[in-house]
Amino acid sequence: MARLARVVVEGMAHHVTQSGNRRQPLAFVASLERDVGRPLARRKPGPKPNVHDQRRQILCPRISRLHRRKNDLLRVLDRREIPLHTNGSESDIRAFVTKRKISGGTVSHAGKTARDVMLGLAKTCAKQGVSFYRFLGDRFAVPGAQPVPNLADLLRATA
Question: Which of 55, 127, 135, 139 has its CA at a distance of 20 to 30 angstroms from the CA of residue 5?
Answer without folding.
Answer: 55
